[in-house]
Design goal:
The protein is of the alpha/beta class. It has ten helices and 18 strands. Helix 8 crosses helix 10 (363-380) and helix 9 runs parallel beside helix 10. The protein starts with a strand and ends with a strand.
């Protein structure tokens, strides 16, 4: 199947008319996007948007050969121009299949929100799945056959992609295309960086892609370290990187602090932000988790792990540190780094970058700063990707 993306933006387009935000101001050239609409083999049009005929003409296609127009969601925005000669647009009832004279078969996929998803099988037996904005399939079953291509709202609904991965509908070779792109994510390099972290990509309006044709699928790093200062957005960045994957285990190393309402509020905010499908464990015993087979680990954070380790070996006391604490702590750090090196799991770890600020006034404070710097460097050496988050902006240091 040959698929032409007449538009790849949200229903209101990108930039949004009259919107003064930075994302809309910089959405120019290939980053400007009309509302999403797909033309399949010149015969099937999914979603009729304003200017569809002009968009097709700019891409070098005509709509005169379209035999079926299907809508996936209620239209909002400017009145839709209905090109002369097109079949009347409609929907396929959930679970029903439509056979076209062009040789395509279309099955309506039930969703967990208003609208209809479409599974399209081409004459060459390649299969794609198209989902409307903010939607996920309902009633997914395990052991689904992987699609050749899936087009969905990757950043607006990452949980939908996680569910598709969990059932096998999205496999390692599935081409993931992001559509319904909105101004909630800055365009340009930041957009493409976030999509690559989810194993997806975006293409400009008017581009034609071949379903089932191999392309360079974004490499997904197996081990990532996210560094940043206080309130820099490092934890949010780490959570984003795994939001589109199933079976995530969140490893909280901070524990609880009785009588500390500020700490309790921080923990609550983190929990409410995480997907409901994630599991959580509170532990600083990381090597056994890294040594097990299983889904992705999100470790937040290494600074609190180091605090616990220094507590355990008496590293805060100068005399104990000199006689046994230093050696004991370094043994623990070496064991953790070795476990990271040997792990087969996907790991995203968070840590504080504390070496750029005021020099601590106490010997124990300077000791913690120095040991965290050494831990970060050793951990980073075992990671395929290292990021530094500053003011919510992720700067790649490696990978």
């Amino acid at each position: 199947m040959e698929l032409t993306l007449l538009g790849t933006g949200a229903p209101a387009g990108l930039p949004r008319h009259g919107c003064p935000c930075a994302a809309c101001a910089t959405a120019v050239g290939d980053e400007a996007r009309a509302a999403t609409a797909l033309l399949i083999d010149g015969a099937l049009l999914l979603d009729l948007t304003p200017g569809a005929a002009f968009a097709a003409a700019r891409a070098g296609y005509s709509l005169t050969g379209v035999v079926q127009v299907l809508l996936s969601h209620p239209h909002e925005g400017p009145a839709v121009e209905f090109p002369a000669g097109l079949p009347a647009p409609g929907r396929v009832p959930d679970g029903r299949e439509l056979a076209l004279i062009s040789g395509h078969r279309v099955r309506a996929v039930p969703l967990d929100s208003p609208g209809t998803g479409y599974e399209v099988t081409g004459p060459d037996s390649t299969r794609l799945l198209y989902l409307p904005p903010g939607a996920a399939p309902a009633g997914l079953t395990d052991s689904a056959e992987p699609y050749d291509m899936v087009l969905l709202d990757v950043l607006g609904r990452p949980g939908a992609l996680a569910d598709l991965r969990a059932t096998g509908a999205v496999g390692p070779t599935t081409d993931l295309l992001a559509v319904h792109l909105d101004h909630t994510v800055p365009p340009g390099p930041e957009l493409h960086r976030r999509l690559a972290a989810a194993g997806a990509r975006a293409v400009p309006d008017g581009e034609t892609v071949v379903v089932g044709e191999y392309h360079a699928v974004p490499d997904l790093p197996r081990r990532t370290l996210v560094l940043g200062g206080a309130r820099s957005g490092k934890s949010l960045e780490a959570e984003r990187r795994l939001a589109a994957f199933p079976d995530v285990l969140y490893v909280a190393t901070g524990g609880t602090r009785d009588g500390d309402p500020d700490w309790a509020a921080r923990i609550t905010a983190h929990r409410e932000r995480r997907p409901g499908s994630w599991r959580t464990t509170e532990t600083c015993d990381l090597p056994p988790l890294l040594g097990q087979e299983g889904g992705p680990l999100l470790i937040d954070c290494l600074a609190l792990w180091l605090t616990d380790a220094m507590d355990s070996v008496g590293a805060w006391d100068d005399e104990t540190w000199a006689h046994s604490g230093r050696r004991a702590l370094h043994e623990r750090v070496d064991a953790l780094v070795s476990a990271v090196r040997a792990t087969t799991r996907t790991v995203v770890a968070v840590s504080n970058e504390v070496g750029s600020g005021v020099v601590p006034a106490t010997a124990s404070g300077r000791r913690f700063r120095d040991e965290l710097g050494r831990l970060n460097a050793a951990f980073a050496a075992e990671c395929e990707q290292v990021l530094l988050v500053v003011a919510g902006q992720a700067l790649p240091l490696r990978g």
